[in-house]
Amino acid sequence: MQHAVGSPLPPPHQPGHGPATGWSPAAHHPSAPHPGASAHPAVPPGFTGAPGPHVPGPSAPHAPGQAPHAAHAQGQPPMPPAAVVPQPPQHGPGPAPASPPPDSTGHVQLPPGGPVAMPSPPQGTAPADTGATTLAVLLIGPAGAGKTSVAKYWAEHRCVPTAHISLDDVREWVRSGFADPQSGWNDHSEAQYRLARRTCGFAARNFLANGISCILDDAVFPDRPVVGLGGWKRHVGPGLLPVVLLPGLEVVLERNAERSGNRRLTDEEVARIHGRMAGWYGSGLPIIDNSQLDVPATARVLDEVLARAIASPPQW
Question: Least buried of 102, 129, 215, 316, by fewest C-beta within 10 Å?
Fold first, then answer.
């Protein structure tokens, strides 16, 4: 079982900054006179009176579709500057400024999570096909049963969005003051287990409300129905489908020996947990003995078990 490694959040959306372009202040003031130029460039030299109003005269004809100034290219002398009639300033509304591009984040409305109802298989699919169904699965088993490996593989190989939520990963979010049950079961470890279950339940509701299936894994004991299975049912909803992974004791001991850190238990603790898990026999929950199955084969059996559970929900 691997420790959860958090991914950094994507940086907030930053508007694109194009390369800086050079520009001249004079480019934005084409009518600014050149230093030393006359304030009335249209007044001919030697004229001492004030310039009067300009009376437009006849202009040279031009071909259709040809601009009036195109005649300059045909040898006609250019019109004097005085003939250029300045256009009055436009007081009407100008073109609307371009609106900024909409923000690409924060506009998706997420429906709130609620209790998960029992799923129904989609129409037109085979009875054993659960790949197109939004499911909430609880994978139960002792330490070393392969819960995390099977849950992760099952979630990764579905054709619909599926999330894997591991109780141990969420429980180990507590860094300072982590209550390790191997150091003794007490009120602190009990509270942290309950907080982790409730946090996982809230996360599962949110994922499922937005069309993402969930598979949770936890070592739920049958002799603690109110805290264990009953707690999961309260946190997620009546549509949660519990399945038990219960290989033989020898297999569990071998897998536990390959672990490291606080995930590895003593052989005595593993045997004690495995014995308590045997109480699931006769409970009505589906049980998979994956002693001789690898992870992909166990995931296929899990799909078959879930298909039967959807058709005939277990009473728990």
Answer: 102
CB 169 within 8 A of CB 199: no
- Series of mean pLDDT values for 10-residue runs along the chain (316 residues): 43 45 43 48 51 52 50 54 58 63 64 67 56 86 92 94 94 89 81 91 92 93 79 87 94 84 79 90 91 96 91 70
* Spatial separation of the C-alpha atoms in residues 102 and 280, rounded to whole Å: 54
Could you tell me which residues come within 8 angstroms of residue 96 by beta carbon, excluding any fewer than 6 positions away? none
Strands (E) in the chain, as ranges, are 136-140, 162-166, 213-218, 241-245, 287-288
Which positions ≥6 away from 82 have C-beta within 8 Å? 42, 43, 44, 54
How many folded domains does the chain comprise? 1
CATH at residue 288 = 3.40.50.300
Residue 181 counted as domain residue: yes
User: Tokens 């799923």 sit at which residue?
Assistant: 119
